[in-house]
Write a structure and sequence with these properties.
Layout: H1 25-32, E1 37-38, E2 40-46, E3 54-60, E4 63-67, E5 72-78, H2 82-89, E6 92-97, H3 103-110, H4 117-120, E7 126-128, E8 135-137, E9 142-154, E10 157-168, E11 177-180, E12 183-186
Antiparallel strand pairs: 1-11, 2-3, 2-6, 4-5, 5-10, 6-9, 7-8, 9-10, 11-12
């Protein structure tokens, strides 16, 4: 009699190793670029960086609602990025859903090899969240403050599931900023 075995998950260190079968990185990237996504700015306050701490921000397009009861969201962060490292230590953070007029903010916080976050926030209007202490971008379509519930390593990214602590809808008549085929776009 054959004994059934449940396949085991590969070790975490093996998840980012390319496999022989399946699509190439370029094919996968091209296919996924056809999926329009909303654009958000994920922010957190790092209290350990300098005498007053430092605000940190990251543009994300892999952000979604997970559950209504309880209210949960998910954001995907590149492993070992500054935001991934910070959210592993700081349990509360914020999200601002960007408008089509905030493309410059999205681009600024998406740059590789960028200048310090302190300078990036210098001329951006924001308020500080009461729960998270993180920047909430002025004029955003919506702002959320979140508390991390779980983290799951998935390939070269970490999926962070968080409970929504606050949600606000600033009065904005603007449309959402979207990302499609490798560019920021307006929803027409």
């Amino acid at each position: 009699m054959l004994q059934k075995t449940t396949p085991t998950s590969p070790p975490v260190s093996d998840l980012a190793i390319p496999h022989a079968e399946g699509v190439s990185n370029d094919e996968f990237r091209a296919a996924m670029s056809r999926l329009a996504a909303g654009v958000v700015l994920v922010t957190a306050h790092d209290p350990d960086d300098g005498p007053r701490g430092e605000d940190v921000g990251m543009t994300a397009t892999a952000f979604l609602s997970v559950s209504l009861d309880p209210p949960l969201v998910l954001v995907s962060l590149r492993n070992d990025s500054r935001m991934d490292d910070l959210l592993a230590e700081v349990p509360v953070w914020a999200v601002s859903v960007l408008t089509d007029g905030q493309r410059h903010i999205a681009g600024r916080f998406a740059m590789k090899g960028r200048i310090s976050d302190r300078l990036l926030f210098e001329d951006v209007a924001y308020t500080r969240g009461e729960e998270s202490g993180a920047p909430l971008i002025g004029g955003a379509l919506a702002t959320l403050e979140c508390r991390t519930e779980s983290r799951v390593v998935a390939g070269d990214h970490t999926l962070v599931v968080a409970r929504v602590l606050t949600a606000a809808l600033p009065s904005s008549e603007a449309g959402p900023l979207t990302y499609f085929r490798g560019k920021y776009r307006r929803l027409d």
